[in-house]
Amino acid sequence: MDGSTRMPQTADEIAAHLTEAVHEHRVLPGMKLSEDEVGEIYGVGRTVVRQALRHLAHDGLLRIERNRGAFVAKPTVKEAREVFEARALLEPSIARAAAERATPAGIATLESHIREEHVALAAGEPGRALKLSGHFHVEIARIADQATIEGFIRQLVSRSSLVIALYWRRRNAMCESHAHHALVDALRRHDGQAAEDLMKGHLLDLLSQLDLRDHSAELLSLREALAR
Amino acid sequence: MDGSTRMPQTADEIAAHLTEAVHEHRVLPGMKLSEDEVGEIYGVGRTVVRQALRHLAHDGLLRIERNRGAFVAKPTVKEAREVFEARALLEPSIARAAAERATPAGIATLESHIREEHVALAAGEPGRALKLSGHFHVEIARIADQATIEGFIRQLVSRSSLVIALYWRRRNAMCESHAHHALVDALRRHDGQAAEDLMKGHLLDLLSQLDLRDHSAELLSLREALAR
DNA sequence: CTGGGCAAGATTGTATGCAATCTACTGCCT
DNA sequence: AGGCAGTAGATTGCATACAATCTTGCCCAG
């Protein structure tokens, strides 16, 4: 702990802090976030905590059940597919726009993100690397100068963290840093078509790493098994 | 007023009610929503009102200024363009998907929406017609069975109401019901390509009805004029 | 011994009181 | 007369107390 870093105080700061924790897989789907508990951690009253929790719920990261509390969302297989279909719809076009408008400063930011991601991986912090990897996608929307869509992508990246926590196949390290490198190259060349294609392929890659088989059939058979 | 209809009580209900009022242009950009005032209207405490207001702020309908209050947002020209660029990215694809999955029930819902829109126009309620017209677009996303993207489109339609309130050129009635009719026809024929093209054209039509000239240059010249 | 009902504890939902901040008005000074 | 400062009013920010609801464990009846 670093005593010099101030704890988040406002509702938005706490919401951002909790979101980071979810992105880093330090807070996992299904976990309960009690108002009193969270309030004690940050040293604020329940009013502020409730604002933050409702904020996250609105982003789809939490599910608030009346008189029961706030729980980290557990996206169903259908929701997981929807998230990646939405990303497939938005991000390739945004990557193209980003390639057309990319500035040296923006590209430098992306490169620093990739560097930090490598550092985190080397330091044995896969959660941090995952968070940075997600932020890479948001940063591309920012470079495209599309604030509205950037907000949507931020939400989708957040939910992707939950999806990855639930449905990721292998536990080994990320294999995708190569894709991010290639994207930065395309942006640097202002090659919109290449950026669009690379992003599309990258998202399909991610999707193929997920185990999104429909478990509803198994649940039904479970019901049968228990009925015997 | 109908005494049998219960006033909204919960934060979500109040948020939905306020959203409708914005959609119908009964609450206009720049208007202030005081906590006490809103609370008195619905007969609830400020706590619930604050939740509702923050909800709308998160959707981009309100702008909450610290210690000043909540004001209906006034999208800039840039934000207005972004909203329609996002819609152009999402809705044509969603219309295609909707055409492929459309059921008789869904189509009946859309037709009833169009009918209600005509009734509202005939009854001299252009605000209500506008609201229904927006809901038509959300309904298509619902037919496409894409809950995540439906949420995004709901947000975009909301913001479009603000954009229309600020930048719509003519005051005369909507001219677009024909486009909605054609879209329903395409959906009924399960003609995805036609639905996609019609939606794209419809959105371009809407955009062309807006006066999104950049006023920043005029502001600069005003500054010059005042400096003399 | 098992199953249902009941009561106690815990947690969230809401209202309200107090503190902090902003706005606007008034009065003084130049 | 005009401008600025100070103050009073109003509005939001936050914490907390109380009410409603849910969960859980216990006890009693069958």
UniProtKB/TrEMBL annotation, chains A, B:
Residue span, HTH gntR-type domain: 8-75
One MF term in the entry's GO annotations: DNA binding
UniProt KW keywords: DNA-binding, Transcription, Transcription regulation
UniProt-listed Pfam families: FCD, GntR
Listed PROSITE patterns: HTH_GNTR
Highest taxon of source: Bacteria
The keyword Transmembrane helix belongs to this UniProt entry's keyword annotation: no
PANTHER family: HTH-TYPE TRANSCRIPTIONAL REPRESSOR NANR, TRANSCRIPTIONAL REGULATOR, GNTR FAMILY
Name of the molecule in the record: GntR family transcriptional regulator
